[in-house]
Structure formats: structure tokens, C-alpha cells
Amino acid sequence: MSIPQHVTKAHATGNDFVVYLDSDGTFEPTEDEVRFLADRHFGIGGDGLIRLAHPRDVSDLSAEQVADCEAQGAEWFMDYRNADGSLAEMCGNGTRAITLFAQRHGLFDGDTFRLGTRAGVKTLTSLGDVPGLGRDVFRVEMGAWKRGELDGYEVTIPGTDGSARGTFVDMGNPHVVAVVEDAFSSLPNVESLDLVAKPVVAPAIESDQNVEFVRVDEIGEATGVGEATMRVNERGCGETLSCGTGLCATAVTLRAKTDVDHWMITVRGGTLRVDVTDTDVTLTGSATLVGDITLLGV
């Protein structure tokens, strides 16, 4: 086995992971090992696996990516794998979970952590406990976003009548955000959607994508903060309780539709804040370390 004997279960607003520290670069997992650990019946269970390693020890990174991490002061890299074993470019919730893990292991001083990802270096700030968002809250500078044509796609769910219009957003990984319960959607309300089936996006996008379904609940005229409810089907693992990059893609789409920059978005795992500017997105939410696990027979 190329995984360590001791791992940790963590989650960030219900988006859960198996995480471990690989200081020496000796525990790069195979696809089969990721699938085993992420299996909710035969393994530990999780939406993905995160190995915290030095950038030089992540085999799929180019020399340029390693150099970029070093130049930006990112000593540690989030080697994230989807539950099916595939590599992932980015996971916003995963950055918070692994940063809390790094903090508890004393891997950085102060309140700021620079973390390498396949979507570039991200800066996380520890905010402690925040009313309305929970304990061990981190603010993540998610970086630049790119949006396609507003409502440029049709989104359907196999076995469910109706459709909605979707907007493509690139957050380092691909998303299509569909607003439901509006004049352009004939899908059921967001709580009733059957997201066991993988949504279909037309016209097809070349790479597989995450698909978010969102409802605008309220926009505070005095505060300038919108409230929304979201569910997500993530590529590589199906529906999850939360998706950090999906929350950011959702806020980007809602901003384009409403001109509101700040959003409190509720997912099945909790509530997070997303702030959007013309150039980048910031995601704020909690993280939790559930427990340490000793693998038998490893």
C-alpha cells in the first residue's frame, strides 16, 4: 500500500474527505487506494482524498507549477483526488479542511496559510469562530473566475420533467450553474430535485463539469447581501453536501443576474459567505476534523 497507516477524517460544511500528511513524499496514493478509502461501505468514506505534501513530491505537477508554488511561498500542496480516484484541479471546501489540518499539526505560524493547488496558489486566513458560519472558519481567496454566456446552456436531469437554463463558470474547474424556481426553469423546487442521476448539459461541454442548482431566496436592500439555496452534483462523486468552487460559481452567476456582489448561500451542509469582484472570488466557511483513524493491515 502507498498510503500511511494513520489518516484523518475531515469535512467542511459536510463536504467530507480522508486527509493525511506526507512530509517525505512517500505516500502518493493509487486510484484504487483512493476509491477504497473514499468508499462509504468498505472504506472510511468521503467525497475525496487529500494528501498534504510538498509540491516537489506531487508527481503530476510540472516544473513550472512547482516553481510557482515556491515563488509564492506555498511550502505545502493540496494533492486532491475525487472519490473515483481521478485528479481534481481544485476544491474550495477541501482547502479549508486541509488548512485546519495543517494548523493543528503546527505547519504554519500566524493566521495566514499559502496553499498550493492544481488551480494555483491560494491564500487562506483563519477567522476563528464566526456567528452564522460556525467554528474554525477560514476565508479563502479563490482567485480569478471566467464566465461564459449567461443562460447559454440547457440543463436537464434524467428521470425528472422540465429543464433550466445554465451558465458556464470556470473556477479552475468547470461548473454549470442553473437557477431554478424562476421564469426560465420548469424543474421542481430545489429541495425536490433528484440529483442521484447525473445532470445533462446541452450543448455538451468538452470536459465533464460540476452542476449547481440554485434558488434566490432574498436580497437585503439595506445590507446589499443576497441569500440563496444551492445543491450540487460534483463530477467524480455525485451529489455532495457542499462544493466550494460550486458556491463561488453560483455567486458569480447570481451577481451577473442581480448586480449583488455578496451572498450567503445555504447548502445541505451549512451556510457559507461568497464575495465576488470583477476579478476574483472569496469564500468563507467552517472546517471540522472529525477524528484520527488507524488503518488495519496497512
From TrEMBL:
Lineage: Bacteria, Bacillati, Actinomycetota, Actinomycetes, Bifidobacteriales
Active site, per annotation: 91, 243
Protein name as it appears in the record: Diaminopimelate epimerase
Biological or metabolic pathway of the protein: Amino-acid biosynthesis; L-lysine biosynthesis via DAP pathway; DL-2,6-diaminopimelate from LL-2,6-diaminopimelate: step 1/1
Functional note: Catalyzes the stereoinversion of LL-2,6-diaminopimelate (L,L-DAP) to meso-diaminopimelate (meso-DAP), a precursor of L-lysine and an essential component of the bacterial peptidoglycan.
Membership in a protein family: Belongs to the diaminopimelate epimerase family.
Binding site for substrate: 15, 82, 92-93, 173, 210, 234-235, 244-245
UniProt-listed Enzyme Commission number(s): 5.1.1.7
